[in-house]
Known about the structure:
- By secondary structure, this protein is α/β, with parallel strands linked by helices.
- Helix content is 31%, strand content 26%.
- The longest helix is centred in the middle third of the chain and has 14 residues.
- Uridine-diphosphate-N-acetylglucosamine binds next to helix 1, helix 5 and helix 6.
Amino acid sequence: MTKILIDGNHILSGEIQISGAKNSAVALIPAAILAKSKSVIYNVPEIRDIDYLIKIMELLGCKIDHKDDALYIDSSNVKNVPIPEELSVQMRASYYFMGVLLAKFGRVEISFPGGCNIGARPIDIHIKGFQALGANVEIIKNRYIITADKLVGKKIYLDFPSVGATINLMLAAVGAEGTTIIENAAMEPEIVNVASLLINMGVKINGAGTKTIEIIGNKELDNGVVEVFPDRIESGTYIIIGALLGDNLKIKGIIKEHIEALLMKIKEIGINFKIDKDTITISKCNEIKPTYIKTLVFPGFPTDLQQPMTTLLTQAHGKSTIEETLYENRFKNTYDLNRMGAITNILTLNKLEIIGPRKLKGTNVIATDLRGGASLLIAALIAEGKTEIDNSEYILRGYGDVVNKLKNVGADIEISE
Ligand code: UD1
């Protein structure tokens, strides 16, 4: 078990460099299979999900060279083999092999995907989309077997603008004859990032980043080159840390337009910051105001920053409310936050009240999921005394080099495997 140990309440100053986005990288790597031979992906984050994805890619016959932050992927000898449970459950994003292998081979066999336990997380919208393109989907025990003699482009309306379904259907549509139109598509930046790789390989795509995406199928693809966008959730997490502990803390490599909802919210609650090109400079705020947050799809307030934001609001002067509209089980972090001295009350399944400001005290806590783990990490950084975060492998799934990044700006933080 991995533990992160933190002695809290140290002011942080210096620079933190943001890594490539986890949720882009986990789609871009499988997408490389669509190229006939080579692809290069730059700015790949060093996180555990990527290690497992590389294992799946190698199982499928890809050769991968990992140099610095670049992945050189040779998919010339890719073969279609079933993806076993021990690999598929390691992350949510293993579902992208469905779209990719369906486009490339017209067949995919994969065990159920994993990911954080933050709600039911069905993949019915992905499946309906594959069926609309002409695929047959069977579920045998814990495996999906998806087959298609041929895929044909169609107009698909998504019941919800799901990030995963939008990307998966974009990937599958590459292998379809004719034009696929995805209506009510998700608009998250990760979709634009994946589209840019596909376009670079030779696919015609219009509208990525809007509600309507048009993809013209093309199997003659090669030489994809792409740079992973900076991680907007990692950016937001360090911005929250800066608002609590920064002394002119600089967070470098952000894209402002990707984190606008967070920036507006922290401005509203009294936190000052300066942005110069891709760098934000932020300092501790002693008079944080309470607020109301509702999580929404992009460009709304991201659900993945809801838990880190909860910790910030334990320091606000008054009562804040968070409404979580995407997941039904995303307040599990509040149990340990309360043990550290916070006052949070789950009012209904998707509504949380936070009463502040509260001094937090270090203790032993357990990360129950990736962003919940980040929420506890932030709490440990502001708490008096020592905190030990068990199950910290969750945190390492999404925050590359987190211990060194924080140590370099003055945090007292160690990791023990
Ligand atoms: C992705 C991100 C995750 C983020 C989420 C929302 C990855 C690997 N993960 O997850 O970090 O929290 O976007 O920004 O990119 N839904 C269905 N049926 C489906 C698909 C989704 O009901 O077929 C529901 C989900 O249960 C959830 C909502 O739609 O309530 C949003 O899910 P979705 O956007 O698909 O999230 P993920 O792709 O799982």
